[in-house]
Design brief:
Layout lengths: L1 H11 L7 H5 L2 H6 L12 H16 L11 H21 L1 H10 L11 H21 L8 H13 L4 H18 L1 H4 L5 H11 L5 H11 L1 H8 L30 H39 L3 H9 L4 H6 L2 H36 L8 H8 L25 H26 L3 H29 L13 H28 L1
Helix pairs in contact: 1-4, 5-7, 5-9, 7-11, 9-12, 20-21
Length: about 500
């Protein structure tokens, strides 16, 4: 924290000390980095640099109504923000707005007759109430979880000026609404500020989520994305769970269809393998035919390439000529055999690289990897060579498989920890989830009693006609929604 503030103070190039709000605004960044901090060791330079960049960027992107510089532009921005909060209160809860007006009445010795004068006085008094809250971004006025939740919503559109105005004004209006039963006894702006500071930390995150879902979520979506489309469903535990996905669900495939598709893939794979086998056989047959005629090539090439030496061959004895021909034939066979071996190695390597990772039948695997029995040498002297094969054990494939398996395990552990929490957070999440599920079941039973007059049996709803199902389902959802809102109003009054 000292490093962050020291760097920020140096960037300001000001001799005056930092304000309290500038100290408060570092706390959310420190809290989100607590898992990387140690109480016994100094933080790493990489973490300090990251915190400095985040804090300086955040301070540079603050809107004018959060900055207490005292310039005319910031004052106009603050008046616009206060007007937006009053407008949101009209939309959310008009009773809370009346409480604010009563508490911000001018004193008896100040006589204001014009409507514009009363409005100006209301803006001045109300701005004195919400300025400390908004300039430190709710730090110190809400508990840590609620404060970080609001910061998360703000950071989603930190580069959108209109979104920042709408987001912060909405949450200030929700704070006033949730604390209206405490603010109704206040007679001045100072008393209202004291109530917000003492009672604000008691507000819970789910209360803000419910109010945002009810009044502002559509407006936020339009500001955050160009098209107003629900790409993902909103699974809010405070709402009735009518569906889990709004996209078109593909047709369900049966085991027969999957088996037929698998057989088609295997047939295509076997066809490709047979074509490859035929190509290899053709190549080897051509090599064998060349090898078969290669014994006479040296003598012919010798005659055609060296016509001047024909007389020398004729002068040699027949035994010497036969010995020379035999020697040339052996040398040619050796060269051809070396070329054939080299081609086999190249084809084996190419076949290993192009081998697709698909499921093969037992017959295909056996035919590919089992060495065929050696054939008897025919009388014409042509040797039948086996088809090139490659090893079953592939070290590179095994290594890739092990790496992918280890990575998938780590991703699974991380995803499970993010989705379900860990330690105390997980137990709290399980308790809250179980409570919401039981509450939903209770609401469903009450709705069945109200709509049908009795509790439904196991297959009673499924036996209804389709038209009746749609009507009754809509009635059930309406009753459940009313019960949920009654529970929230009851909880807010507590």
């Amino acid at each position: 924290m000292t490093s962050v503030l020291s760097y920020y103070h140096a960037c300001k190039r000001s001799r005056s000390t930092l304000t309290d709000n500038e100290y408060f605004l570092t706390l959310p960044f420190i809290l989100t980095s607590m898992q990387s901090l140690s109480m016994k060791e100094q933080p790493s330079s990489k973490l300090v640099v990251s915190l400095v960049e985040e804090y300086v960027s955040f301070m540079g992107l603050r809107p004018g109504f959060m900055d207490d510089s005292g310039t005319d532009e910031d004052k106009e921005s603050l008046q616009e923000f206060v007007s937006k909060v009053i407008e949101n209160l009209k939309h959310v809860d008009k009773k809370s707005l009346e409480i604010i007006r009563e508490a911000c009445q001018p004193p008896e010795d100040m006589i204001i007759t014009t409507k514009e004068g009363k409005r100006k006085h209301l803006l001045e008094d109300f701005s004195a109430v919400i300025c400390p809250v908004i300039r430190c971004m709710f730090v110190g006025f809400l508990n840590v979880e609620s404060m970080l939740y609001i910061w998360d919503q703000y950071m989603m559109g930190v580069h959108n000026c209109q979104y920042k105005m709408e987001c912060l004004s909405a949450y200030v209006a929700i704070v006033i609404k949730l604390l209206s039963h405490h603010l109704k006894d206040c007679q001045s702006s100072t008393a209202m500020q004291r109530v917000i500071q003492t009672q604000g930390p008691k507000l819970q995150t789910h209360q803000f989520q419910y109010q945002i879902k009810k009044y502002f979520v559509d407006k936020f979506k339009k500001l955050l994305k160009e098209k107003d489309e629900d790409v993902f469903p909103v699974l809010d535990p405070t709402q009735a769970w009518s569906h889990w996905n709004r996209e078109v669900i593909p047709d369900r495939t049966t085991s027969v269809d999957r088996r037929r598709a698998r057989d088609l893939r295997l047939a295509d794979r076997q066809r490709v393998l047979e074509e490859e086998r035929e190509q290899w056989e053709k190549i080897i047959a051509e090599e064998e035919s060349k090898r078969k005629t290669g014994g006479y090539l040296p003598y012919l090439q010798l005659d055609s390439s060296k016509p001047a030496s024909r007389s020398q061959h004729n002068n040699e004895s027949p035994l010497n000529q036969l010995e020379n021909e035999r020697r040339d034939r052996i040398e040619t066979e050796r060269k051809l055999q070396a070329e054939i071996n080299m081609l086999r190695e190249e084809l084996r390597a190419a076949r290993r690289e192009q081998r697709p990772l698909t499921t093969l039948s037992l017959e295909t695997v056996v035919s590919r990897y089992i060495m065929p029995a050696p054939a008897n040498t025919p009388q014409d002297g042509i040797v039948q060579y086996p088809i090139p094969i490659h090893s079953i054990v592939d070290d590179e494939a095994e290594e890739v498989k092990n790496i992918l398996t280890e990575m998938i395990k780590k991703v699974h552990i991380s995803t499970h920890k993010v989705a379900h929490g860990a330690g105390r957070a997980r137990s709290n999440l399980d308790k809250e989830t179980l409570r919401f599920i039981n509450l939903h079941k209770e609401h469903l039973k009450k709705a069945e009693m109200k709509v049908f007059g009795h509790y439904l049996g196991s297959n009673e709803f499924d036996s209804l006609p389709s038209s009746q199902k749609e009507i009754k389902s809509a009635e059930l959802m309406t009753v459940i929604q009313e019960l949920i809102e009654e529970d929230h109003e009851r909880q807010e009054r507590r």
